[in-house]
Amino acid sequence: MVKEDCIFCKIAAGEIPSRTIYEDESFRTILDISPASKGHAIILPKNHAANIYELPEEDASKIFVVAKKIACAMKQTLQCEGLNILQNNGELAGQTVFHLHLHVLPRYQDDKVSFSWEHGKPSEEELDAIAEILFAFLDF
Ligand code: AMP
Ligand code: ZN
Prior knowledge:
The chain has helices at about 5-10, 55-75, 125-140, and strands spanning about 20-25, 25-30, 40-45, 80-85, 100-105. It is an alpha+beta fold. It has a 5-stranded antiparallel beta sheet with strand order 1-2-3-5-4. The longest helix is centred in the middle third of the chain and has 21 residues, at about 55-75.
């Protein structure tokens, strides 16, 4: 299903031109127009899902296979020295286009990419409480 007025639906469908580096029946992978590093690409599902919560399990299970393919190609062709996979959900988390996409970010010595956070120091009890909530919800 595609969504009216969704730019990534239109790009994924080929209605808006893009620098496609890989395409299959479920996904189109394109170069990011505003790359964080040389070769920065984004993988777009052809079916619209705004975020990971809406992503059908079938696409969820396939998208990492595509990411692996792209990552291996980048390592070989661009000789990147590292690589990050990133996927933002919600404005607070930095999502700016509300059609799920996976960033594949090749990394190079002295590139200007940075992800950082302050490491917390929760107590054992706090960690136990969070684990308990999630474990119970997920019902292993
Ligand atoms: P996010 O902030 O995770 O939602 O990422 C959106 C990404 O899409 C950004 O890195 C943008 O540079 C990229 N982007 C937005 N519009 C286009 C476009 N028309 N073609 C390629 N990349 C795009
Ligand atoms: Zn869409």
